Amino acid sequence: MDVNETMLPGVGMRYEFNTVKGERFGMIAYRDGRMDLVSYSDDDPDECISMVRLDRTEVETVAEIMGAPRITARIADLTREIPGLVSAQIEVPPNSPYIGEELGETRCRTRTGASIVAMVRGTKVVSSPTPQERLAVGDVLVVIGTETGIDEVRKLISGG
Amino acid sequence: MELEASILLELGVLLLVLTTMSGLAWRIGFSAAPLFLVAGLAAGEGGLVPFTHSFDFLEVAGGIGVLLLLLTLGLEFSAAEFTATMKRHAPTGVIDFVLNAPPGFIAGLMLGLDWRASLALAGITYISSSGIIARLLSDLGRLGNRETPAVLSVLVLEDVAMAAYLPLLGAVLVGGHLVAGVLGSIVAVLITLSVIWLTQRTEKAANWLFTHDDEEQVLFRVLGITFAVAGLAELAGISAAVGAFLVGLAIPSPAAERVREILRPLRNLFAALFFFVFGLGIDPGELGPALPAAFALAFVTIFTKLGTGWFAAGREGASVRGKLRAGTALIARGEFSVVIAGLAVAAGYVALGPVASAYVLIVAVVGPVLARSSDWLAAVFLKQPKPKPKREPGTDHQKQDSVDANE
Questions:
Q1: What is the ipTM score, two decimals?
Q2: Residue B304 burial (CB < 10 Å; 0-12/13-18/19+)?
Q3: Are B387 and A44 within 8 A, CB to CB?
Q4: Are A9 and B78 a contacting pair at CB < 8 A?
Q5: Closest CA relative to residue A63, chosen from A4, A125, A14, A119
Q6: At what angle are helices B148-173 and B115-126 packed, to 10 degrees?
Q7: Residue spans per domain, chain B
Q8: pLDDT band at A47 (very low <50, low <70, confident <90, very high)
Q9: Residue range B165-171: average pLDDT?
Q10: Which of A5, A8, B263, B323 has the fewest CB atoms nearer than 10 Å to its CB?
């Protein structure tokens, strides 16, 4: 995909590209984190139309919506290619014995055969977390393994 | 420490009046700076409120306002943006200068001003208001347009041109000869270039100096260095304003952004006081006689900026409508024209005051009006088809149907 980057001195950057369906789409990223989304009409490529103005939090929310599920979707794609392998998202419950503990403490792979490939914490995604990563309530673990393995991880994390 | 009640009352009333005006300006989409100047004019000699008690303070505050305005102008500079702009838009910068500086200089001589004051007037007609224009482009939803990078490039090049112009003006205004001025300007440009070169090399150190978790630390460091350098520059015979501008240039980009944010409220306050004090120093009675000349100069320089924008947008391959949009967008002059006028008046060239402020008031109002109506102008005068009605961002929440024609 060809993204056209234009510097807007004193304002920020502009990114434009043509969608597959032939529409021209643009994003104006202000220096302070705000963003304008614009598109162009067919008959006048000079002038942008129909814009949405996003403030900083809105930009973050949009990025989150577009970003985080894509990572899990890609993992889902991966598991589809290998028979027997599934992925799941497991939220760390408040009663988990591992809250505040390092990920390594769970000895997850040794005990269940399943791997924790990513951790989603709020808006942040930690892909391939190290064993030193600490768990917190509400963290979502993205786990890959066999069906039974994943069930065991679920039990393990909730202290069962 | 005791503050007289009268001083507090005056300052309180003043800020309340200024905030009302800036609120009004925001509503109708104009820059507040010219309105502050008008407030100063109205309050001046024989005006409504005599600012006798707080005048000393206001004068110092106005001086600080100039320093902060130029410091933030320097902070806007980013080496990456400058090199990219130079590569692509250097001819535009030349055209901009050739078209817009001479009218001011010639008008000054014709008005019988000293050549030094005329040099100041050249700067006043040359520099477009980056404040007004950036805001205007964003408000009108034109940042996505084809001509916009060209318009913004003009602003960048003008800001950089200030690095050569301000030292020159500073040197000749304090009574130096043209030769001394040019020499001073060359020295200043060399200093500027080496400062920029140096900060590129020592970016880590500079970033370390101006990045600190504590805002107070950053604020005090920046202000301390700015005032000290400005003072040294004043002693060295180039103006304090130049020193402040150089400090702004020297602070590298990542740190500059934070510094800009921290300085913003302070700059807004002191800049407003500067515009007010500048207006205060001008006798409203002298404004009338200066009007014809100011209107004539405004008329000429509206067309020269139009030409600049037309040329700049044409190089980007914009259509006639786009060229007109670019041209009209560039017309507004504002805060830095007042700063230049302020420097000249402070150096004793008071005759420049009335004509300069009348001129800035005219173009600061006419510019945005023309920019807003540029598509209408194109339809009426250049027989261009009218564009589809377009909603300005954030003003109209009418729901638009999203229809995908391909499905």
A1: 0.73
A2: buried
A3: yes
A4: yes
A5: A125
A6: 160
A7: 7-12+33-154+254-381
A8: confident
A9: 83
A10: A5
Cα–Cα distance for residue pair B390/B140, rounded to 1 Å: 10
Per-residue H/E/C for B380-391: HHCCCCCCCCCC
- Residue A108 contacts by C-beta under 8 Å, 6 or more apart in sequence? A114, A115, A116, A153, A156
Residue contact B393–A36, C-beta within 8 A: yes
Q: Which residues of A touch B314 (CB under 8 A)?
A: none
C-beta atoms of B394 and A53 within 8 A: yes
Judged by a CB distance cut-off of 8 A, whether residue B393 touches chain A is yes
User: Is any Cβ of chain A less than 8 angstroms from the Cβ of B144?
Assistant: yes
- Terminal C-alpha separation, chain B: 75
Tell me if the domain spanning B7-12+33-154+254-381 has CATH number 1.20.1530.20.
Answer: yes
**CA gap B236, B230 in Å, rounded:** 10
- Eight-class DSSP state of A56: H
Residues of A in contact with B84 (CB under 8 A): 7, 9
Using the Cβ of B111 and the Cβ atoms of chain A, whether some distance falls under 8 Å is answered with: no
pTM, to two decimals: 0.76
Q: Looking at the predicted structure, is the pLDDT value of residue B54 above 50?
A: yes
Interface residue of B72, B145, B260 to substitute, partner A, most A CBs within 10 Å: B145
